Amino acid sequence: MIAIGEAARQSGVSIETIRYYERAGIVPKPRRGANGRRAYAAEDVARLRFVRRCRDLGFSMAEARALMRLDEGNCDSVRVLTEEHLDKVRKKIAALQTLEAELAELSENCARGSTRCPMLDELNAG
């Protein structure tokens, strides 16, 4: 059994995030030692790492929770969840590319040296 600081170090999740995950029910509350402090087992650290990796990949907390509930033999369900997430990521990328093009155009307009700022005009028109 290890203390919360060591669990944070081993999992790559901050102490405050671990506490948040516990309050939100994403990970179970750990056992308490005789001194009343949280005591984490290896499986607790593995679960924290799993959630951290899900979050690193952009999965929502609900999606991470759903993935945790699936077992190794449930690859089709994992694939469906992952493909849904990938679709959302692709839509975000497309939206960001559109935003990038709009900002580049507005910035280019500013470079033309007009006495009125085309970017501010565009923002005010919106």
Radius of gyration: 23 Å
CATH class of the largest domain: Mainly Alpha
Counting H and I runs of at least 4 residues, what is the number of helices?
Answer: 6
The topology string of helices and strands comes to HHEEHHHH
pLDDT under 50 segments (min length 5)? none
> What oligomeric state is this?
single chain
**Mean pLDDT, as a whole number?**
88
Structural class: mainly alpha
Shape: elongated
Number of strands: 2
What is the CATH topology classification name of the largest domain? Multidrug-efflux Transporter Regulator, Chain: A, Domain 2
Strand composition percent: under 5%
The largest β sheet comes out as:
2 strands, antiparallel
> What distance separates the N and C termini?
57 Å
What's the architecture of the largest domain, going by CATH? Orthogonal Bundle
Helical coverage, percent range:
55-70%
Order of strands in the sheet with the most strands? 1-2
Please tag this protein with its features:
126 residues; mainly alpha; Multidrug-efflux Transporter Regulator, Chain: A, Domain 2; 2 domains; two-stranded antiparallel ribbon; 6 helices; 68% helix
